[in-house]
Every structure is written in structure tokens, then in C-alpha cells.
């Protein structure tokens, strides 16, 4: 009689979704291997479906005449057929008693396998970004990232938001700071000929100079001014020459835009979403979170605190007062009007409030033209959410819906009004009060995992001088 | 006594989620307005949350002394307070008896409002891409697109897949055809100086020539070779000078990659996913689908057929035989080895099988280097899914996991082996059989809605000579 084999993933076995004595086939990579004194081979294998490894017991009668099994090393890929049994040890609940092992792929020159079982530095792992997903830490980050993103989609879907694929290639500089990547198909010969100075980009693919987007917001607004609740979720780009732990040239942003909303509505949405995500992670990716805990990153305590904490909300001018009162000798002196830097944010979130904080009503001069001017004529109806450890992860505002004031702000910001003709149209034809925010996905993941270098948060980071893999 | 007002969206009222006699506030845009003989104003308003408009009844006592209400035109934005009542007509189930109307935004020069209530051509609407989401057709496409994407994430999450943000800026040409956009920060002066011929890109942001990705697959594979089930979902780019109904320079792709999978596994996954999406749409976006039906696009019949139909699966060589037998005088003559064009696909899906079809085992010469070579040495273990009306929407394959054969294929394809060092590593260290596919999101939406020009499927299309908005 042929035995029915269930092909399964390790997470199903570990979670007890299959009964003991079930015949299963499971595939994965060898993490470690040891042979007991009485000749039983123990293989710890992983398939990335969860953090935990599956214990495989191979008795002599299985590997007899199959000497190659004893030659397995870390990183080899195998197919295991066997039975699920309760494990007699406390280390794991279930183990597999193998009836057959097939080797799918060897590791060439095992002594030089880049992902040996020993500890590797994060710097080293960045150089082998194609193999580092095989490590516990990058695996855990990947599963947590997925859960965060999935829960964001779910949360927004449940709240009546529609996803909008805002364009990546654009002619618009949303933030008005000009740090953009050019997109072009002009060939080298054209580039190297100096004759076409005037109409340089006329021969380009789009017949004009185009760039990679820094934000989908302006385009997203045109959809919120029709479908009310929408969100952009996509990659954004900054050609900034900053080599810090917090900056990437390419990163993903979530940008919800809500029609008929005020500042408090988006603050509530942002907090509700952050708490929903955090609760889901504590419920559903507990083991992956605990992995960081073990590394002395106290993120579970932090996350539990987050979901029960009040997000402290203060006005920018109040924040400035607190900083002044601190009597600390900040590198950037504190006065009303400054664009707070990391040192200020750190003091507020980590020293003074010891909790996430929301700062509202920033001076208009340090914020983009599209933020709604307050009655004081000096500040805009804006908010930033700052997290201990990572700083700003969310920035949002009411959008200026009054055409006259918008035009004034465009002029003040020295932007070309003509270029924003379609954005202005949204204020000319049935304008509405509306608001939205942007959230940097990588920074949120950094905050949640406690992994502080953002280059370890994305699979293949793009930074100055680096676009490898 | 103050009455408690519930701020709600139109879809909640239309779907009967609130009781009649509930006091509500609802915001939106005027679609049409008429005044009855006895002076009652009827406003049909929409907020984009659903296709249906909400009927607002404004009696004389409400708009008395508020003459401006009678001046409302299509496109004006309003805030309505009122009571939910059963509607006496069969046109709708519920209507609102207004107690107060606030005008949020007028339409400047109503006679020239670009989205007047009359019928507009799709060509015309493309020129006002920032306002067209206010039309029924673009609204319906947007809501359907969201549901499709959300259900894709849900389906893959439920099947144990993790999302991977594969890089957008890359040095790798996955498809090996070179139609890529360059990404650069070199300034015009550098571009116009012809002195740096040799080290032209050394001064660029990434210190080398970089491009926009044509596919996230190779990077995705490095994660499936560690986490088993993963998917890329992001924008991809082709700098092809094709101005057809089916081509965009920027489009979104779904790319699942599965470790330990064979061709039949990904065919099953693709079909299961398509059926799951289609069922969800029929259940949850019925009205939006019906809108296209009314436009004589028989998509509901088509979709109902899809979920019950067998996807016909045939070998490439069988498909060639069928085409030969047809005795049709195709522009591109049929023989084993051709890369089928639209005319061939149309014959197979629309004339011969009259159903979606899956074609397997294409000649290696017309497919990329990474597809797994079959035993015949002539074909690769690949599959395309073709839909009536739109043609190919899915293309997938087993991935060549044998390093020697991969190297041979890289050489045959005249690619530089060194550039693929990290991709080759995946075959050197614990290689595994694996497979995956790519699905063009816009083409799927085009198939489902029956809207045939892909420029109407994306919010802001990027095509040769066009990167407006």
C-alpha cells in the first residue's frame, strides 16, 4: 500500500497543524547537523516559513548505504520524507523521524560557505545581500515586514480606502527641493555630443526631462478629490548624498489621502493604524519579535507599551519651549522657526516624554507649499509623529484647498505655477477640505524590530555609490 | 437637545448599513440637480465610495433664504446634513431628506467644467487624467483595481507568501533585451561635456550606469531560495517605443516565486488565484462590474464563464499544429520556433478554444536564459496564460537550478556571466528546484473590466512622449 504523503512547510508542523504520525514531505536547508554516539544523525533544517528549525532524526537503517547523508553541511538543500512525532526534549514540541532523505543541492566548498553557522556582522551580511535572507535575523525582518505591509492593506481596505498606483516617472517635484534622479533613454552618443544644448531633452523618451518621484501625494490628491479615501503605496526616491543609518535613495512610502478630513482625523487614522499593526504583530509574529528580544533589543516591551500608551500630542511652539527649558547645549540652537534635528527629536521622545509624540502646527517656512495655512499666517496645519529611537516616521497635513492661498504659497516657494496647473484645477472645480500623511515603511520596520540601520531593513539597499545586486 | 450626527460615506447608506431615520452628515460632489414643479430640489451626489449616487431631497423650507443652493452645478462639493428615509421610487432604496446644506467648493465657470454630465470619449478623458476619476467609468476601474490587488495580497498571504520589495533601481537586465531607462543624477554640464568618455558614469550617483528594473524576478529568487514562498509586487519599466493599446512604459507586476515547485505547481497557483480574484469581484464589486456590462462589455458573463471553465492546457508544439491546420494566412507565417504574435493568440483563445489557455514548453530561443531547459534540449519548462481579448497576462517557468546548464544558457544568450555572480551563487550553495511567474496587473484589469486601452486602466499612464501629470 502506498502511503499518502503531505507536502508541507515547516511552520505548519511547528504550529501543530498536522497530527502526529502523519506522513509528510518537507523541503528546506540544513542549518546544523550532528551525529550521536550511537550513530543517529540529527539535522536541524529551515525553510524560511518561520524562524524555528525543524528537528530531523535519521536512524542508521535510513542512512545505511547512503554515506552521502553524513556529508551534509550547513546550507545544503534536502527533501525529507518521514513521520511527525512528539519530541521527547523540551527544545521543540515536534520532530520528524525520517524514512528517506534526498539531497537537492550541495554546498560547493563548504568551508568557504558565506553563511556559515557562526555569527556574522551586519556589515558583512550587507556584502552578501543575496544570501543573507538565509540568516535568522534577515528572515525575521522579512516576515515582519510582510505582516506589517499586509496589515496596512487590510486596515485601509477595511476603512474604505482604495489603492492608487501613482506614477513613478514624473515631471513634478512634490517637495520642491530638487534632489531627484533623472530618467532618460538618451544614448551615450547623444549625451556626449554638446550640440543640442537648447533642446537637450526633446529627443528623450518622454520628449522632456523626467525624474523618479519623491512622493505620490499630488497625484494621490487628484484621486481623493473624487473617490474620497485612497492611498498610494509605492517606491519613492531621493538623490541625497547622505550616508546615514536612516537614509536610503530608494524606499517605500504609504500615503493615505482623505477627503473632507481635518488634521485630527489623520492623526486618529495614523494612531489607530499603528496600534492595529502592532497588535497584529504581537499576535501573529510573536516568535520573530522574540528573536529581537533575545538580541537584547527590548522591542516587545516597547511594542506592548506602544499599544497601551497615549501618544503625546503637542504644538510645535510648545515643543520649542520644552527644548529651551532643557538647558541642553544643542548643536543647532533652539528658537521658534528651526527645523528640528535628530538631537531635538531624541530629547523629546527619549528623555522628556519617553513615548511616541505628535508635533503639530509647524512654521510654514520649513514645510512644503501644499500644507494648509493656519489663521496665524505663520504656521501650517501639519503633524509629524516621532518615535523613540528612529525619529520621524509619519508626516502629514491638511492640504491647502483655497486656490488664492495656494497660489500665494506656490509663489513664496519660488515654484512655477504653470507646472501645477492640474493640481490647481482640484481647487477650482469643487474644492474640498482634505488631509493626508506619508509614512516611511522602512523606518516603521526599523522601529518595530529595533534594527537601527535601515540598510538591513530592505533586501537590496540603494545608497550613494551602491546599487549592487 | 443636540442631535447626534453620524459622518458617513455614501456606500454605507446605499448598502443599508445605517437605519432609516438616522441623522447623518455626508459629503460629496453634485452629479446632477433638478427642481420639481412644486419647488423641491433633487440632488444626485457621489463621493466615489461606490458607483451609485445618493439622492438628496431639499424642501423649500430648507433652502429658503439660501438662494445659492439653487445655483449648484455638476462638480460642486457639498456637505449635507439630513435623515435617511426609504425612497418611494424604485430607482433607489434610500434617500436623504436634507436639513442643512453647506457648499464646500464651487465650480469656476460651470459651462466650461471639463467633467460635464454629458458623455465624454476616453481619448478626451485621458487629457484630463486629474479629473477623470470623477467619472463613473474611471471610478469603477479604480474600485475594481483596488479589490483585485487587495485580494492578490490576501490570497498570497493565506498561502504563506511573503512580500519582497525588490529594487527598482538596478544594474541588471533581467530579460536581456536592453530596453531600459537610465537613472542618473549627472548634471547637464557633465552631460554636455565630452571629456569623460571612458569613465562617463563614474561620477554618477551610484558610481556606475544604473537603470529602472524590467522585472524583480532575479532578486525575488534570492529570497525564495531562503524563505521558500515569496512575491514581488511593484512597478516595472520598459523603454519600448510601442504606442499600442497593450503597452505602457511603466506598469505593475506581480511576481511570485516558489521554492521546490514544478511547472504544474505554478500553473495551479495562477489558476487558483485568478478564480479567487474573479469570485471576490463578483461577490463584492458586483455593481461596478455591472456598469461595464451596461456598456455592452459582456464581462460578467465572461467572468462567470471563467470561474467555471477549464483552462485549456496545451504544449507549444500542439499550438503550432493547431495554427497550421487553421489554414489562415497569418502575417507571421507559422512554424515551430516562432514567437507567437497577437494574431496567433487571438485565433487560439477566441476562435479555436474560446476560453483562457495555457501554453507550455516554449522553444528556448524565444525565452530568457533563466528558464529551465527540458530534456529535449530545445524547449524550456515554461508556461504562458493567454486570455481572450487581451492575450498573454501571465508568463512563468521553472528556473534553471543546474549551474552548468545555467552558465551555458548565459553564454548562449550572449550575457556577461560575471554580472550574474550572485544569481549563480544561488545555484552553487544549496540549489533547489523552483519556479515562478509574472503577471501584468494592468492587463488583468483590462481583461476583467473589458476596457481595452491600457491607458485607461492606470491613473496616469506613461507612454512614449507622454509623462504628463
Automatic annotation (TrEMBL), chains A, B:
Stretch forming the signal peptide: none
Aminoacyl-tRNA synthetase listed as a keyword: yes
Domain Aminoacyl-transfer RNA synthetases class-II family profile stretches: 143-459
Subcellular location(s) of the protein: Cytoplasm
An annotated GO BP: asparaginyl-tRNA aminoacylation
One GO molecular-function entry: asparagine-tRNA ligase activity
Gene Ontology CC: cytoplasm
Protein name: Asparagine--tRNA ligase
Lineage: Bacteria, Pseudomonadati, Pseudomonadota, Gammaproteobacteria, Enterobacterales
Gene: asnS
